[in-house]
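INFO batch 0412 | record 1 of 1 | parsing
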Amino acid sequence: MLVSIIIPVFNDVGGLRVTLTSIMQFISNRNDIEIIVCNDGGGEHISKIAASFGVREVRLEKNKGSYAARNKGIDASKGEILAFLDADQQITENWLDAGVASLNDADYAGGQIKIVTGYNPSDWELVDEITAFPVKSSLEKMHFAPTANLFIRKALLDKTGNFNEILRSGGDTDFGIRVFNNGFKQIYVPDAITLHPARNKAEQIKKLRRIAIGYAELALLIQNKNRLIFVFGSFGRLIQVFIEFFWRLLRYLVFDCWKNDKITLKFIYINKLRKLIYFWNVMLCAIKIIIEYR
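INFO prediction complete | emitting tokens
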């Protein structure tokens, strides 16, 4: 059974090299896989990396987003099973076998994504290590797994369709919900492990903005939720996070400061600040959509 490993990439030459190196380390000698690099407008820099590793490349001349790139890879794939990775990850030795085996009992499987910090990580990187990629929870509560580590049976696409190319973010959620609504079985695979580098402060803020925009676009352009209610709801969540932040800070100063637990205080500050950034951008994007699509 052929497995197509699909890796979208824009301009992350270093990340692509890391991912392909890890694949070559563990599974390059197998004849049941094909590796497809989906060059999302990255030009010759990405093409040279793909060629140096001897893997297939599909190419978009202009950057259209990771979901358009994945769809290009899907259209070119020959495998009965599709495995999706991001171009900044490392696979582990048992990743492929665990992911493929899980599809004996399911149609859609999300693997575990472990965050790896470097030497002397920042506070933001430590928070990322704790909070990033809650795959099991996402599957149980929202019926999706990140495409950073996802296995599917290709045949399910006949019913669900491919990824929605309108979305620059949030396409993982949209696709997973369509899979669930069509009655396909979804599972979490803790043994299909990939390693993802921890994001620093700037990278996390950039991601928060991106996923906030994706969430608003998914809700308003795809799911057609009431736009005014959505804006007021986002504003309400923003106010709620403000209140939670000041309450947690007050509680720490009044009841917990004697513990001198600076780590907890930093975690509270960073975690609440990330939520504020997220909901602020959700609200701004929703207002922009209302103006543009009135």
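INFO post-check: Residues 90 and 195 are 5 Å apart (CA to CA).
INFO record closed
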